[in-house]
Amino acid sequence: MSRKPDILKAAIELFAAKGYHATSTHEIAERAELSEGIIFYYFKTKEHIMLGILEDVFEAYIIGIYDAMEKTDNGWDAIRAYLEFHFRMRRERSTEILCLARDYPSTITNSDSPYNGGVRLYFKRLLELVGSALRQGQEDGTIRDCPVEETAFLIVCTLASFPKFDIIGLAPYTDLDSATEEFIHRVLSPLT
What we know:
This protein has helices at 4-18, 25-32, 36-42, 46-70, 75-92, 94-103, 116-140, 148-167, 177-188. It is mostly helical. The longest helix is centred in the first third of the chain and has 25 residues, at 46-70. The chain is elongated. It starts with a helix and ends with a helix.
C-alpha cells in the first residue's frame, strides 16, 4: 500500500498552516505518522513533495476543465464551463491552492530545473483548452473576434491571480465568481 497520499496530505496541511519554507520533512513525517526515510523513499526532496501537490492539482484541473468544456454546445458555454469549474475547484481544493499560490518554490520554474518542463506543459495545455473554446466561439458567433492566444493568456492569468490577492488581503470583494464571469462575458461578447 502506497503511503504517498498520506505524505501529500500531511504536507498540504503543514504548508497551508506554516508555509513551505517553514515546514521540514521531519514535521511532514510526524504528521503522516511515518519515518522520514519513508518520505524520501517516495520523494527525493521537499521540493519533490511540492511538485507532487502541483501535479495532482494541475492534472485534476486540466481534466476537469476538459470534461466540463466537452459537454458544451458553443464557445461561450465552454468558457463559462471553464470558469464555473475553476471557481468550484478553487473552493473545493482551497488548501492545496493556498499552498501553491503562497509557497510555490521559485526553483521549480527556473530554466535549469528538471520540473520546469512539466509546469510549462500544464500551462500550455490550459492555454490550448481556453484557446480552442475561444476559436469555437468565434466560429459559432458567441465570441467576438479577438486575438485568441493573447485573450486565452489574459483569462488564465486573471483567474490564477485571485488566490494571491486573497492571501495578501487585497481582494476587497468576498465573491468575485459571478462578477468575473460577467466581466469576461462582456469582454468576449460579439460587438453589436
